[in-house]
Write a structure and sequence with these properties.
The protein has one domain. The chain is built from three helices and 13 strands; from the N terminus they run αββββββββββαβββα. The protein has an eight-stranded antiparallel barrel. A two-stranded antiparallel sheet has the order 6-7. The longest helix is centred in the first third of the chain and has 21 residues. About 30% of the residues are buried.
Length: about 260
């Protein structure tokens, strides 16, 4: 509750600061504004007290850096404000992957709390090379609902800051390794991973800068809600930095799809 209040204050404070800037400009309400997407050149990692045990790696496909299947995108549904200052509420979808540097084995204690340890079996060869077979990876899918304050600076620069809600749909854990010459794949599928107490509804903060002439920008986000339910598992928070943030006019995107 405290973190939710902080998130609301951080979103509201900039709004109250820029209200005088509207002046006598007419505030408009519109629908379907921008399409926002974060794709490759993204680094997903964890922060928090237990983050050292959940370090992520960019070594190999599926790390987020070179994985075309991992992304987060949203479309602005409602916009309130002027051409230069406006609030936007959107909805979208996210596929987030965390390739763990250490290969963890999850368990549960007698009181239902999640336990985690580096895989103790020396016969498991994770082949820690870029093109190696082995890996251990957390994969999540979710509906994503951002509430952003947008500021247009000049003709080319767009700044965005705000918060988001994230409704988890699935979460699974995949381990791949060699035992001798045999390839082994273990998966904790979403239905089973639910028993490891992942947070279903999360709130967080995000910010971005986009250069229209370059057609690319930078974005970052941080989840105020821990990945696992508080007190029921490791205290880690999802954090994300993207170097390929893209901002497009939604009507143009839909028009191109119809052609």
């Amino acid at each position: 509750m405290k973190k939710a209040a902080i998130a609301i204050l951080l979103v509201i404070s900039p709004i109250t600061m820029i209200l005088p800037a509207f002046g006598q400009k007419k505030i408009q309400v519109s629908s379907f504004g921008k399409f926002r997407i974060e794709t490759q050149l993204t680094y997903n990692f964890f922060t928090g007290p237990d983050a050292a045990d959940f370090g992520t790696s960019i070594k190999g496909f599926g790390s987020g850096i070179v994985d075309a299947l991992a992304m987060r995108s949203s479309a602005d549904i409602i916009n309130i404000g002027t051409d230069k200052f406006y609030l936007s509420f959107g909805a979208g979808f996210a596929v987030i992957k965390y390739r763990l540097a250490d290969h963890l084995v999850f368990g549960k204690s007698s009181d239902g709390q999640v336990t985690w340890n580096v895989d103790p079996d020396p016969s498991h060869n994770y082949v820690n090379s870029f093109f190696g077979y082995g890996k251990s990876k957390i994969i999540t899918t979710s509906f994503y609902f951002p509430l952003n304050l947008n500021i247009e600076l000049g003709k080319n620069v767009s700044l965005t800051a705000g918060g988001y809600a994230d409704l988890n749909l699935t979460a699974r854990y995949k381990m791949k390794y060699l035992v001798g010459e045999d390839k082994v794949k273990e998966i904790i599928r979403s239905a089973d991973f639910r028993t490891f107490n992942p947070s279903i509804m999360k709130i967080g903060l995000n910010a971005s800068v986009f250069h229209k002439k370059l057609a690319y920008g930078l974005s970052a986000s941080y989840s105020l809600t821990p990945f696992f339910k508080p007190g029921m598992g490791p205290d880690i928070h999802e954090t994300r930095i993207t170097a390929t943030y893209s901002l497009k006019d939604l009507t143009e995107v839909l028009r191109k799809k119809k052609k």
